[in-house]
Amino acid sequence: MVISYRFKIVDFDVLIRGFQDIPTFLQCCEDCPSFGATWACPHFPADEIEWTARVNRVLLVQAVAKDEADATIDELFCKARERVNLLLRQMELICGGRMMSAGGGCTQCEKCSRKESNACRFPEIRRPALEAYGFNVCAITEHFFGTEIKWSRQRKSISEATLVGAVAYKR
């Protein structure tokens, strides 16, 4: 698998005003069969939102993963997401900011404590995806990177997957 990256720094306010639509994307989250299965799903505890008041810039990261082998969307996406989120974590440490993961739910625990209505075991490393915060990753990708995300509704073989993540920080 080969992953190519593109980066863009923007004001966090620009991202919020132009690309955040919480009611629409909350509905998308609620329609997901895994909704509420992890602490990376909305509705968030208060500490998951508080950090947004302390940042004013965001480093957007678009990653396009390509694989020659016959992989399903789940296989390619999951392999790519693991590598992209590792890069985002490193950037988070360098920037002193807060990462918004590149798609999907939290994968820190084999079985999330939310399923038993218990608090998150690792809130310091829990990182919801951009979509979970209500951001439209399709519009972000088109506007800032000039490309379109190709979606696959079927779990068929694919050769490419696009992921978008971000690190928000204080300039």
Brief synopsis:
This protein is of the alpha+beta class. Helix content is 32%, strand content 25%.
Summary keywords:
171 residues, 4-stranded antiparallel beta sheet, 32% helix, single chain, alpha+beta
What do you see in this structure?
This protein is an alpha+beta fold and 171 residues long. It has helices at 12-19, 22-31, 47-50, 73-95, 137-145; strands at residues 2-11, 57-72, 98-100, 157-169. The protein has five helices and four strands, in the order βαααβαβαβ. It has a four-stranded antiparallel sheet with strand order 1-2-4-3, with helices on both faces. The chain is globular.
Distance between the termini: 34 Å
User: Could you tell me the strand content as a percent range?
Assistant: 15-25%
Quaternary structure of the protein: single chain
Overall strand count: 4
Low-confidence stretches at least 5 residues in length (pLDDT < 50)? none
- Based on CA inertia axes, which overall geometry fits? globular
Q: Compute the average pLDDT.
A: 88
Largest sheet: 4 strands, antiparallel
The number of helical elements comes to: 5
Whole-angstrom Rg = 15 Å
**H/E topology pattern:** EHHHEHEHE
Proportion in helices: 25-40%
